[in-house]
Each structure stands twice: as C-alpha cells, then as structure tokens.
Fold this protein.
Amino acid sequence: MKKWLFVLLIGVVTLIVNAQTLVIKGSNTVYPIAQLWVEEFQKIHPNVVVTLEGAGSTTGIKALFNETTDIANASRFLKPSEIEEMQKAGGYFVPILIAYDALSAIVHPSLPLEDISIETLKKIYTGEITEWNQVDPKLPKRPIVVYSRNTASGTFETWVEKVLGGAKLSPRVQMLESSQAEIESVAKNPNAIAYTGMGYVTSQVKALKVNGVAASVENVINGTYPISRPLFVFIDLKRFNFSWPTEGVVADYIRFILSPKGQKIVREAGYVPAYGTGE
C-alpha cells in the first residue's frame, strides 16, 4: 500500500513540475469565445493549466501592464493614454485581430419595436428621450429602463464612441458588470433596453435593427451594420525580448486561435471569424 501511495505521490509531483500555465484576462465580450478556445486547447495540451477571467477589456490591458496576465482579450484598441503609458513602461503591446462583432441594441421580446436609429439610441442614452412613446407614438407611455456595461468594458467604450459620439451618458443609465447581466435584466423587464456583443444575444431578448440593418454575420462582413467592430487579443513582446514568440505556451495558443479550428470556434460562439475556417 505504501509503495502505491509513493508511486502516486511521485506522479502528482511530476505533473505539477511539468505543468505549464497560461493566464488570460480581459474582455467580457471575447470571454465566450475564449472559454471554447481554452476547452479545445487543453485537449491538445493537457499539461497546460489555463486561468481565464472576463472582467473587461480595460482590466485585461491593466493586467498586461502589471505583468499578471500572458494574454489580454480586448473588444477595443488601445487608448492614446494606454499607448503613452506603454511607451513609458518600455512595453510593446501587439494587437492580434481574432474576430468581428456587431454591437446589438436589445429590448424585451414583447416590445412592439423592430428598428431603431443611432440618433434615437443616442437620445435614449443621453436622457433626451425617457419614455417609449417618444421613440414611436404607437409604443406605450412607459419609462425606458436603460442599461449599459460599466466603464471597464471595451463594449462601453465602443458604444460611447459610435453611438453617443462622445456625449455624456445620462445618470438614469444603470451600469452592469457583465453582458450576461444585461441579457438577464432585459429579459425580465418589458421596458428595458441595453446593448451587447452579438454572441450574447439569445431568444430571451430581441435584437433591434439599427438604421434598418440587422446585426447579422452577413451585414458585418459587407460593412453595412453601423455598430460593428474588431475584437483583439494583445500580448506584450517585451516578455519575449521584443521578438514574435515561436515556441512555448503563448505561441501555441495564438497559433491555435488563428487556425481554421480556432476560427471555426469563433463562429460557433456567435461572432464573425477574422480568417478562414477551412470550410
């Protein structure tokens, strides 16, 4: 018995010593894709222990600065302030395009509204419009309950840029910690509106057309959907002596997510692949 316990202990110690780690932090939008990537990646590399967090793009980029992550998922590009900070820190954050997304304006399925303009969305989120009958006289005279992602979110940054045009958000807007929280809140409230990445949209909510264009894969590819955006992962080349990593767990992971298999997973997660899927 003692002999078997000793052998088992040696085996466990060997696994721990040989295990590699990969830490991924950042975008809540990219999180569902990354979950599927990690699941498949670990089938190929069972000795790699992966930690995945999805608290927001800003959180991931801060983790690159703090050197507490290997990879930062982001639903936006670097801000000018982050580029300046990176240069002062001697870093070299490289963006890797991994997918495209359509930011979807969502409401409760029972609301008799199918289409909304960017201008109307701006008026709702800045507080100029506060009731549904101001959007359309045929809609009920009920207060609009407005939800947004919090300020750590790259989705929030994109919404402020592309919908609000930099205008200030109304204090009536309720900030939520995750895209899933937005889906659940809208699903429970027939007077609510929110926005989310296309991969999060379910039958619990209704995605509105924006300026008459549906948030579909086809309309992202042909460039007609007005609130589409690229999605990225970032790595810091300073960790690799300012050269592109060609070996090691980070290199293996990047090769996988950009492969036809990895890009097929992007599509399975409900987003638009950036590269070919081999089909």
In short: The two ends are 54 Å apart (CA to CA). Residues 105 and 180 are 14 Å apart (CA to CA).
